[in-house]
Amino acid sequence: MSTQTFDPYAAVTASSPRQFLYALNPLAKVVGVAPAMLVLIFVRDLATPAAFLALALLVIVVGARLTLRTAALLFLALPAGMAAIGLGFSLWVDASRVDDTAGVLQLGPWTLYQGALVIGFATAVRLGAIIALALIGGLTTTGPDLVRASVQQLRVPYRVGYTALAAFRFVPRFGHELAVIRAAHRVRGHHGGSGPFARIARGWGYIVPLLAGAIRHAERVALAMDSRAFGAHPTRTERHLVPFRARDTVFIVCCLAVSAAIFTVFFPWQLP
């Protein structure tokens, strides 16, 4: 059994010059899309979030490395989730509010109206657009770079940033140790068999080794932080700098301009 696990905090680099998102400051990718994500919460039409969804997918496809995992997330999981949410919200819509629209499906006394589908899928597309905008930075930014940018540009106390980063690093570490423990149990023929009860028995056998490994890892991290005088001084020098360049400003300005243009063209608010 392979012991390789996916590390979400590993360094990511562009494999092509056109993949510009990897060269941007993590904060620029947050500031550029955050206003649009916030305003989309109050949008109720279908065209505006659909435009942002298409724009976000285009930016990711052009500016990021499109792996099989990323493609499955963007073009399979995200549409499937939006379809499920849209259908679910359509069933919850009060029929008396949309009974003036055409009926799409009728089962006995119950009728699914076109207006309910519009409301349900408008909500689903809005959530999908917000997720897609968040993925612009989420798929092209690592945890260490985000922490470094927050400490260097936002002046977040490094005690807070690096402590949170050390805690988040436990997740891939647990994944690696769990794979090692499973491989060791299989080599020794421990808790063999199949079925739900065998899985439960194997799961109980993983708890104690995982806890022991977590305690050992926490002790090593604490000793490493103490040996480097972590927290002894108000500031620390940085080995890896995450500068805020002119291209980051250009990206933010372009994002804000395009967002304002989309909201202006579709204008999803009805004035009295």
UniProtKB/TrEMBL annotation:
Q: How does it sit in the membrane?
A: Multi-pass membrane protein
One GO cellular-component annotation of the UniProt record comes to: plasma membrane
Keywords linked to the UniProt accession: Membrane, Transmembrane, Transmembrane helix
Ranges annotated as spanning the membrane: 20-43, 49-66, 73-93, 113-136, 249-269
Tell me, what's a Pfam family for it?
A: CbiQ
For the keyword tRNA processing, the answer is no
InterPro entries xref list: ABC/ECF_trnsptr_transmembrane
Q: Where in the cell is it found?
A: Membrane
What the entry lists under CDD domains is as follows: EcfT
Cell membrane is among the record's keywords: no
PANTHER family in alphabetical order: PROTEIN ABCI12, CHLOROPLASTIC
The identity of this protein, by name, is Energy-coupling factor transport system permease protein
Q: Species name for this entry? A: Microbacterium hydrocarbonoxydans
